[in-house]
Design a protein that fits this description.
Transposase_HTH; alpha/beta; 5-stranded mixed β-sheet; 411 residues; 48% helix; Nucleotidyltransferase, domain 5
Length: 411
Amino acid sequence: MSKQDITRLLGGWEGYRIGTIQRFEPGEKGDLAEVWIELMPLKRRRMKCSGCGRLVSTLHDISERWIRDLPVLDARTWLLVWRRRVSCPRCGPKLEELPWLGRYARVTKRLAQSVGRLCEVASIKHVARFFDLSWWTVKSIDKRYLAEKLGPVNLRNIEVIAMDEFAIQKGHRYATVIVEPRIKQVLWVGRGRSRESIRPFFRLLGKDGCKRLKAVAMDMNGAYEAEVKAHCPQAEIVYDLFHVVAKYGREVIDRVRRDEAKRVADDNAARTVIKGSRWLLLRNKANITRGEDRVRLYDLLDANRNLMIVYVLKEDLKQLWQYKYPKAAHRAWKNWHRRAMQSAIEPLRRFARRLKPYVPGILAHCRFGLHTSLLEGINNKIKVIKRMAYGFRDDEYFFLKIRAAFPGIPR
């Protein structure tokens, strides 16, 4: 078999021929076997300028460069490439453009693609160990691979979005993720949760895109709402069930449960039952499947009137998101609000008063059917990505990983 046959068999290095080949067994150059392949440029060949792409026949100079390639026959493979610079009339001295090697790359494009694909399912540490590369080299390759693969996000024809925050680091440091909920695509990720933090997204969206936006699903975040209204005054705000009910659990159920535990402080048995009922009261009724948990819940509600009221009103509050017609939903809200205000339970009355200004955003669910449950799933995936990398210090790379995890469903 000739060297040119070997070149074609290995996938080809266009514009080059094989010179010398050396193989070193394990122990000679390290723990793994190594193959060194010298690549010589073909003569009498017009070269392409890497600056402007025009064909050039004048050579400026030539230098050697060591390049890593995919392993050959289970041996770590190095290419000694005689790299040419052309004398381009337009650009001056420029490296020759090669289809299999980037301008300043120290690994071939096929090795970079293999590293990028493996990084989709494994941590940087394990990929680096597999290819015998440094952690920083793998991270740099994967970042460039993701940027080229994803490209700029397509914000045309976006009519609805959902936004939510997630913890990026300890110490109350947050970032914001914005998605198109219908196709499950992450559109933008940025550090922070203030108005200034999400403003770059609306700049990317542009004036026409802002005018096209019809609805935005979010939690009751005043900064998000103010920025949306500043750029997209016609867009309706849709408040999410998950966050409203979670707020109800913190501000009403937890408060009433603690107050009731203090009220029966002299009765140790009753106090212990009430204090240990937090998760039982906060869980969805449909998720309480064990018989003994249901018995405990019913016994608790039978024995304590205030806990029974706030628990029943929690379940009724969730029903507001089941209505399809705004008028019926509004009647249900007025009925819920009346019962809450007549309850004489101050944490519940206070919550009802605070919730009243947000009712239009709750009832908007009837028209758009949006929610941020997808964002809760994205947040869980983000936690997995952080654990795989033991934390990210490079925001740009971290946000590219998030976008890659949710590329969207083709329309």
